[in-house]
Amino acid sequence: PLGGNAAEAPGPAGPPRCSEMGLEPLFQAWSYFRRRKFRECADVCSQLLERPPGEQIFYFLLILIQAAWSLKTRALTEMVYVDEIDMDQEGIAEMILDENAVAQVARPGTSLKLPGTGQGGGPSPAVRPVTQSGRPITGFVRPSTQGGRPSTMEQAIRTPRTALTARPLTSASGGFIRPGTASMLTNPDGPFINLSRLNLTKYAQKPKLAKALFEYIFHHENDIKNALDLAALATEHAQFKDWWWKVQIGKCYYRLGLYREAEKQFKSALKQQDMVDIFLYLAKVYLRLDQPVTALNLFKQGLERFPGEVTLICGIARIYEEMNNISSAAEYYKDVLKQDNTHVEAIACIGSNHFYSDQPEIALRFYRRLLQMGVYNCQLFNNLGLCCFYAQQYDMTLSSFERALFLAENEEETADVWYNLGHVAVGIGDLNLAYQCFKLTLVNNNDYAEAYNNLAVLEMQKGHTEQARALLQTASSLAPHMYEPHFNIAILSEKVGDLQKSYTAAQKSEEAFPGHVDTQQLLKQLKEHFAML
């Protein structure tokens, strides 16, 4: 039994409060992280890590410091994180200096470099516009639809940098933040981690810290070599049994352009663990190697293991669309909607396919569905205006285009709207309005080859031959993949008696669109004329 002075003896004053233990800031940082407030999370973690060394005595404080370090690393990574599955842009260097070509002359329907050879019976360039690589313009802008494969370096460099054509980036690394830039953006005082002084072997032996550190090095610092070294040490420490590290090594190899090594790593990871992401990464490797048929077979194997997986079905549809097999692509997009009826890409692509198949009423239903889902942008109202016009619902046409102009975020989008308004003006017979609309298109986007071509046609109707010739030459130099400027130059030259130039332009038109009947008839007439001479 205690004596009378027991109350005066020192004793515990109840459980310590979180603020006294220093745990409350960590919970606050974790709360910020869960709410995606990464800047605030990093700031709180920085305050924890800046404590004087004298306070870091107890073991639980050491654990606290490790947790704060890991959390800050993850927060900084999330601030610049980009999903590697969608980052598949090719630059000029990757396209022209590609040493991974499997076959110089691919069989029809087996290459993305020659998508026009597909057996899908898709709409011709006379109905559906194509990019410089021969792919039809899709209903949904993706990185892969903006990357093309120009045949020459000159063509790649001269191509206008817009999404209307196959846009060549200067390098694939342009899609990533340059090394060091992300550090300066998120840490004004300098980088959070000095990679040159890290002992990667020590961190590789701590799996939880190693994974957070790898993500930081790979995404935030964009230092692929150090990330690969850490992943190699970590997978060795895990006795090559951790599929996650094999996937990360494959990602590093892919970023470095070592596609065959990346393929080996992804296949090894797939043997250990069935994951949808691994199928997507492996298919991405095959597409970069220009093996779309292998990628299609891989996606179908994935669907056997993951029936109804939307990303795999969508991947098949994208490949068919890039190979100009539009009918098969539409069927797979419909399968996507059976699994996920709010999939924006599938709805947009099916709507685009119906529009170019001369079914604007059905396309209008799909675009209205996007509007009901909350998609509210310039492109959607632009498409709604076109569908309303060709479906003869004239009361909604101009109001849709007005809304599109109001929502346009840049000059390229504004140019698209004015170009389509020019088509509407031609359709109603107001050629003066059409002329003004095409002029406004060029004011907003000086590289709009289609507008130059249409302006030339209007000038020809006015009898201004020299102006029309100059506009057509500009259009043909901006977009050598379009057959219309070449054919119009051939017609114009034939009318003024320059038969040699007409024949040369007609040959270029036939090369761009082999199935164009008018070009073939013109070439036949010119050959007969030359034979008579």
From TrEMBL:
Highest taxon of the lineage: Eukaryota
Give the matching InterPro entries: BBS8 (IPR028796), TPR-like_helical_dom_sf (IPR011990), TPR_rpt (IPR019734)
Pfam families, alphabetized:
TPR_16, TPR_8
Swiss-Prot/TrEMBL GO biological process terms: non-motile cilium assembly
Disordered: annotated segments: 114-156
CDD domains on file = TTC8_N (cd21341)
Q: Where is the composition biased (Polar residues)?
A: 143-154
Record's SMART domains?
A: TPR
Q: What keywords does the record list, in alphabetical order?
A: TPR repeat
From the UniProt record, list the TPR repeat ranges: 449-482
GO cellular component annotations of the record: BBSome; ciliary basal body; non-motile cilium
Is Transmembrane among the key words of this record? no
Query: Which protein are we looking at?
Result: TTC8 protein
